[in-house]
Amino acid sequence: MADGTANQEGLTIPLMSWKNNLKALLVDPSSTCTLIGKAYLTNYGVKTGAVDNADVTITLLNEGASFTVILADMHMREMNGAQHMFHSLIFGMSMTVCYAASSMGVQTRLLGMSTMFREREKEEFLAAGGDGFIEKPLHPSKFVPILQELDNN
Fold it and tell me: What pLDDT is attached to residue 102?
């Protein structure tokens, strides 16, 4: 796992720095995957939150939380990744919220995560408003290029 280096005060120095304040939300019922993903993202200088289900994500978005990227497990207990994206877009990230966020320079990328993807799942996820996919387990070789792209926009 990635480890940032500690400074003299014992604070961890991120492995990368960003021009923008990048914020991620991991939506994953697996505590192991969440632990690994949150550690990686945090060590790479991304402020990271984690929840274990889509309902909490929707609540956060309705309360005005914003994220640079939302990484959602495609196989959650209460709803699959496509359903999660649909509900997030309809109930949390309405067009008004998306417009307001984009006018303030906030671009949220919605990514599905899975150890495997079936073509039908990919199509459903994209049709529901998802932006792409990332293979689990989360690893810097997979998420750093996405973060670099988001940081440059």
Answer: 46
